[in-house]
Amino acid sequence: GENVEQHPSTLSVQEGDSAVIKCTYSDSASNYFPWYKQELGKRPQLIIDIRSNVGEKKDQRIAVTLNKTAKHFSLHITETQPEDSAVYFCAASRGAAGNKLTFGGGTRVLVKP
Amino acid sequence: DSGVTQTPKHLITATGQRVTLRCSPRSGDLSVYWYQQSLDQGLQFLIQYYNGEERAKGNILERFSAQQFPDLHSELNLSSLELGDSALYFCASSPPGQGRNEQFFGPGTRLTVL
After folding, report:
1. Chain A residues touching residue B55 (CB < 8 angstroms)
2. FRET partner for A111 with CA separation of 20 to 30 A, picked from A32, A40, B15, B64?
3. Could you give the dihedral angle defined by the CA atoms of residues A48, A103, A73 and A92, in that order, rounded to the nearest 10 degrees?
4. How confident is the model at residue B4 (pLDDT cuts 50, 70, 90)?
5. Distance from CA of A35 to the nearest CA of B (A)
6. How many residue pairs from chains A and B have C-beta atoms closer than 8 A?
7. Torsional class of A98: left (φ above 0), alpha (ψ -120 to 50), beta (otherwise)
């Protein structure tokens, strides 16, 4: 089955700096890659996603890149703010062929003011 | 607010007991997914239902079962509970239609087994 690895497990950045989280996946049939943000005790919240027919997607201060050949995808947060502090999860699924999400282990991001 | 509701928010019970967690998907969503989040296992897929039918199974124990009802709400039943079943249980729903893969999570049920 699919295996998703996520690095780093913790990330501390200064406010205003950029944060990058990287994930690799094993199943070449995976074609949908969402990112979730989870604050302590809250639900995972979808913040951005990318499909395998696209190499990059941006939404204001966040962007995701996908390299299908290398089977890895990354989340980039620019101009970080204290409210970006949370745990971020990457995930992968086969989309219409089987929608279950396989999650990475999570990255705890701390933005220091 | 994702539009997915879950009850109860918290559940405290004893080993050996049985509990039922409830989930109502967003209006119009036909798929419901259940996930378990524990400290050592991360977010793990348990089971998916689509319009009342079981669609996919993940790492769901035999002591656990689920169903989706005609009104599309879903229930996850956990029996013969063990200490290790203590976790956050999330359900998520996704819209119908080709290419609609987004999953929206409910607020979760925190289960504590003593």
Report:
1. 99
2. A32
3. -80
4. very high
5. 10
6. 61
7. left
| Main-chain dihedrals φ then ψ at residue B19, nearest 5 degrees | -135, 160
- Distance in angstroms (rounded) separating the CA atoms of residues A100 and A50: 16
CA closest to A3 among chain B residues: B44
> So what's the pLDDT on residue A96?
65
- Please provide the size of chain A in residues: 113
Arithmetic mean of pLDDT, A16-23: 98
Residues of A in contact with B99 (CB under 8 A): 51, 95-96
Which has the closest alpha carbon to B112: B7, B15, B13, B6?
B13
Q: What is the pLDDT of residues B12-37, one digit of tens each?
A: 999 999 999 999 999 999 999 999 99
Question: What distance in Å separates the CA atoms of residue B89 and residue B1, rounded to the nearest whole number?
Answer: 17
- B40 has pLDDT over 80: no
Q: Tell the residue number behind the tokens 């396989």, with chain if given.
A: A102
- CA-CA distance, A99 to B57, in Å (whole number)? 11
Q: What is the DSSP string of A35-71?
A: EEEE-TTS--EEEEEEETT-SEEEETTEEEEEETTTT
Inter-chain touch A42–B107, beta carbons under 8 Å: yes
